[in-house]
Every structure is written in C-alpha cells, then in structure tokens.
Amino acid sequence: MAQLRYTRNLFLRGICITYLFAFLSFYVQIPGLYGDNGILPARTQLDLKARATLLNKMKQKPTFLWFAPYLGLNVDYMLDVLSLLGAILSFAGFVSQKFCIAPVFAGLWSLYYSLYQIGQTFMFFQWDVLLLEVGFLCMFVAPVWYAYRGNPSDYVTLWAVRWLLYRLMFSSGVVKLTSGCPVWWKLDALNIHFESQCIPTALAWYAHHLPMWLLRLFTVATNVIELAVPLLFFFPNRKVRIIAFYLQVFLQICIIATGNYNFFNFLTICLCISLLDDQFFSKRKSKNNKSRIRNYLSTLITILIYGGVMYGTYIYYDLKIMDNWTIESNITFTQREFGYILYHVVVFSMYFALASFALTLVSTIISIFYTKEMHQLNDKLTATVFALLYGISIAYIFAISVVPYSSLSKIFNSTSIDQLTRLHSKVDHLHIINSYGLFRRMTGVEGRPEVVIEGSDSIEGPWKEYEFLYKPGNVNNSLPFVAPYQPRLDWQMWFAALGTYHQNPWLMSLAYRLLSGQPEVLALMNTVENPFRDRPPKYVRANRILMLGGLGKQSHSPLIEYLTKMKILQEKPGFKVTNEPFKLILDNLRSLVSKVEPSLILWGVFTAGYAIILTGYSNSVSKKK
Q1: For an engineered disulfide with 286, which of 93, 291, 311, 491 has Cβ 3.0 to 4.6 Å away?
Q2: SS3 content of the chain, % helix, strand, coil (to 5)
Q3: Is 167's pLDDT higher than 80?
Q4: Residue 448: pLDDT band by 50, 70, 90 thresholds?
C-alpha cells in the first residue's frame, strides 16, 4: 500500500487554513452582528447571571462562552477570546505540522462549535456545519501526538473523509433534480446562476455572457461531476480516483472564479485531497517490468471507466453536434425514471462504500504485519489494535451517516432502520453528521431579487439608499473578489430578498440600528458611501414594503417593544466586565483590526504563515548542505 503520511499532513494543514479563515472572518464581524449593539446580540442566547451550575448551563447550551464570568468578561469579549484562540491554534497548525494533532483539532472543533451555538441565523449555512463535520473527522485523521512517520490507520481515517466528500458532492447533484426545479431539468441553470448568486465576482459577468449552448453544456458537466464521478471515489484503481480529484478541483476552481462562497470551496478542495496518496506527489518512476504492466493495465481501466462515463453522458443528455459546430444537449430521462435510478444508486453506493471500507481496513491490518518500519511484534500488535479502534469508530460514523444520506431517495427513506435513526438523533445536535445539497432550486429566474434599504428625513423623501460592501448594488461599483472572507450580513440580505421581513425578523433589528446610527452595524456596510454620515435618518424602508418611523419613543414604540421582547434591547444592564486589563488588550486589538479591510486581513495572515513555512524550509535545506 502506498504511504499516506504526506497526503494526511497536507489535508490537516489545509483544514487548519480553513479554520483560520473561518475564525478570522467571524472575529471581524462580532461587534456588528453579535455585540451588545449588534443586529442579533449574543447575550440573548445566554444568561450569564443565571444561578444554575456550570454543568447544567453547558447541558442547556454547550459553549465555552459560559466561562466568561470566570475571566471577568461579558459575552462580547468572550466571543473575541474564543475567535482569537481559534485563529491562533489554526495558525499554529498551518505553519507547523507539530500542531496538527488530535488535541489541537479537538480544541478547534470545540471553539467553532461554541461560536455556532450563538450564531443564530447568520451561521445557518451548510459550510458552517460542514466545517464542524470535517473538524470532527480531523480528530481521527490527526495523530494523537506528532510523529514523523505515517500511521497505518491513515487509510481507515482518510476513507471517512472520502465518504464525506462523496456525500457532499453526490447530494449536491441529486437535490438539483429531485427538487423538480424546471431550470435544472431544462439545463438552463447557468444561464441564471452567475447573475442571481449572492456575491458574484467580476468574472461572473463574462461567464454570464457566454453562448447559451456552452452554458447548457457546462450545466451537463456540473451534473456529471456531481452525480456520476463521486461514485468513483471508492474505485480501487488510483488513477481513476486521481482523475476524479482533478474533475472535482476543476469544478471548485470554476466556482471560486465566478462566485464568492467564502471558505466553502477551499474546504471542499481539502476534502478532495483524500482521493490522493503520497505516490501522487512523488517523482519517482518504477523501472520494474511488472510495475509497468500494472501501470498500463491501470491506464486501460481508467480509459474504459471514463469512456463509459462520457458515453453515458452522451446518451442521457442527448448530446448532438449541430451544423454550426455548437453542441445541443437535453435530458432524456424523466423525473420518475431518475427517482427509480436514484433508489438503486443509493442502495448500491452504500454497499459499495461498505465493501470499500472493509477492504481498506483488512488491507491496513495486513500491511501492518508486512511493513518494514515496525520490527517489534508489540509495535505491530499495538498498531493493529489502534487500526481496529479507528475502524470501529469510522464504522459507527458511517452507520449513522446512512440516515441523512438515505433521505436523498424518498423510497429508501421510508424503509430506513429505526435503530440507526435513533442513533443519529442522539448526535444530531453536535452536527458531526449532516445532510447536504447546494443550489436545490435556482432563484432569480425572473430577475435578481434584491432588498434595497433606504433612509430619509421625511416620509415623503427623498430616499437615499444604503450601500453594502460586497453584494451587488451600485452599478458603478465593480464586483469584488472577497473569498475566503464571508460577509454574513450581505449573505443574509440575499436570502431576505427571497422571502418577506416576517420570515427575516432580524431585519427589524437592522432597521433599528440604522435609525440609531449604530457604528458597529454601519461598519458592516459601505461607510464611504453612507448617505447619513452626520446623523441617522428619521425613516427607514426596505423594498418599499417595510416602513419604520422616527426615533421618538411614541412613534417608535412598537418596534422598541418588539426588540425588547426579543431581548435585542436590554431593559436591565448586562453582565459587567471586571477584567479591565484584558478588556483593554481586546479593545486595542479590535481598534487595530477595524482599520483594515477584512479580506486583506485573511490573506495577510495567510501570507505571513506561508512566509514562515518557506523560511523554515530554507533553513532546513541550508543546514543539510
């Protein structure tokens, strides 16, 4: 079996980078989103003055924020501490492999889960729960303590990562068709997607204006990469898996180039590393004739497999080359036929994955006794025990993941095993096993929906629009490249445009903060083009539907009563900060960070970490010389 030490280390460091982006992205938005004067204050989720024991509080809502009083801090400052601690740990894992160990990843998962507990609507994204699930798996993938050599159990633990990647990609492909969305079934999704997505990049404009037949062909390619290729993740031929890796990474790069989906695509690329092995990164070529024969056979099998995929694409998408050298494409199967095929694919994939896992576990145990790195029998027995323990743990994870995975097929879901469902329900709140499915239905078919927030000093106008930092607004502003930073307010504004303000009650709080001229919230918006820099407006409206009155208590009483009922506005003073030195440090750091554009902070820290790695590598090379 090929080694996985380098592959494992690359995966773990990639996850550390993703954690770093996630924690820093969260940190810079804390005052405006979760501060005392933010849109959804975090203190509404916790009662630090409650007389319950710490254990009972942790049972009620498991988060490290309960430790705030013990440090002399309130919830706001404790959020800063947790975010910064997460950033420090992830940065350490990024720059040094010695910190890519299970205890560190346990800490990272616990910290992000603590933040997720109070995240409310601004953290209800699939990439947040995906990061939690990946972070949980990293506790198994990472060595308990730093070791220079590879661990035979790496094959078993990285298999779990591959299974997660499969569920993510396959589910994303399935829901597009099971939703019954006519845009996906007509292959017109990409004709709309680039224009209607939340925060498009500048390249999205060019992608949107590609020929329609080419966009339809790209939609076909997306379906194939998400539906057919993931089944090959468990194929025993490594060349088949490597091509699957390239296809998945290609899709993610295309998404990164045309849309700002924060750290999600970077995280998915990290998951794709599980399809590789150390031989992929090695330049050595075997001169053995037997190896050459196996290589030729492997290449032939790969050609046959992907030739079959291409032929299936040709048949099921009715690809035709027209006289003008364009390619016409149409789906040839019905929704009912797809549902029937899906049921059998779901059943087959579970047995296929289970067989792959069993083969991986058995091969790992056999390789332990034939490896040259372990000479003592005790070492081999110990490694075997650990491999079995990891195998049992991964088998349990696989078993409970069957519950959300089987829900892809309505037919299969009706016959799900009750025992597995009960097991899944016990850990569901931890988000270590989740269901996925992106772009279930294509929005913006009749045009891009937007919520325009305007303010005025008179009910009769003139109304002046508030500009956001990243989401499309003023047509004179260019579209940004902001990933891996996630502007959570901009994202929620996009979702708000798909519903009403009744479905997005946080809009009431946003309106109140704008009427109050709250600087923490305004910092999340375009302060340069703020039409009310000197003083806040007396009236605010959104989409010419929501109308809110002035700041006077009489005309404003319904809004104040509502926000007080939601505990967004405090009737009593909150928990007092007693640790003044710590508070001063956090305030100074916040003041320093607030002067820099968030995406620059993320890339600046990443560049610094990369420079540290290169410096360390250069020093090690010079010492060898």
Answers
A1: 291
A2: 65, 5, 35
A3: yes
A4: confident
Please state which of the ranges 51-65, 173-187, 555-569 shows the lowest mean pLDDT.
555-569
Is the pLDDT confidence value at 418 over 80?
A: no
Cβ–Cβ < 8 Å for 598, 28 = yes
Contact indicator for 294, 279 with CB cutoff of 8 Å: no
Dihedral angle sign, alpha carbons of residues 94, 99, 101, 107: negative
218 has pLDDT over 80: yes
Q: What's the whole-number mean pLDDT along residues 379-387? A: 87
For the chain, what is the domain count? 1
Which residues does 189 contact at the CB level (< 8 Å), separation at least 6? Answer: 176, 181, 183, 219, 222, 439, 442
Report d(CA 61, CA 422) in Å as an integer: 21
Give me the residues paired with residue 77 across strands. Answer: none
Whether residue 601 lies inside any domain: the answer is no
**Do residues 80 and 584 touch, judged by C-beta distance below 8 A?**
no
- Residue 553 reports pLDDT greater than 50: no
User: Residue 48: its pLDDT value, please?
Assistant: 84
- Give me the numbers of helices (H) and strands (E) for the chain, helices first please: 25, 6
Q: In what order do the strands lie in the sheet with 464-465?
A: 464-465, 453-456, 539-542, 546-548
Q: Number of C-alpha atoms within 13 angstroms, CB side, residue 479? A: 18
d(CA 234, CA 348): 12
pLDDT at 288: 65
Domain assignment present for residue 321? The answer is no
Percentage above 90 pLDDT, the chain: 65
Contact in structure between 33 and 39 (CB atoms under 8 Å)? yes
Are 8 and 138 within 8 A, CB to CB? Answer: no
Q: Are 17 and 266 in contact (CB under 8 A)?
A: yes
Alpha carbon distances (Å) from 607 to 480, 599, 600, 602, 613:
20, 12, 10, 9, 10
For residue 255, pLDDT over 90 is answered with yes
pLDDT, one tens digit per residue, over 133-156 is: 999 999 999 998 876 566 788 999
Residue 491 has pLDDT above 90, yes or no: yes
Condensed to tens digits (0 to 9), the pLDDT of residues 518-551 reads 999 999 999 888 899 889 998 888 864 433 433 3
The DSSP 8-state label assigned to residue 535 in this structure reads S
Cβ contact 507:543 at 8 Å: no
In a domain, 469, yes or no: yes
Q: pLDDT: is 479 or 82 the higher one? A: 82
Question: In the 8-state DSSP scheme, what is residue 547?
Answer: E
Three-state SS annotation for 1-47? CCCCHHHHHHHHHHHHHHHHHHHHHHHCCHHHHHCCCCCCCHHHHCC
Q: Is the peptide bond before 484 cis (omega within 30 degrees of 0)?
A: yes
Helix (H) or strand (E) holding 579: none
In a domain, residue 514? The reply is yes
- What is the SS3 string spanning 171-222? HHHHHHHHCCCHHHHCCCHHHHHHHHCCCECHHHHHHHCCCHHHHHHHHHHH
Residue of 172, 373, 155 whose CA lies nearest to 276: 155
Q: Which residues form the domain of 496?
A: 452-566
3-state secondary structure of 487: coil
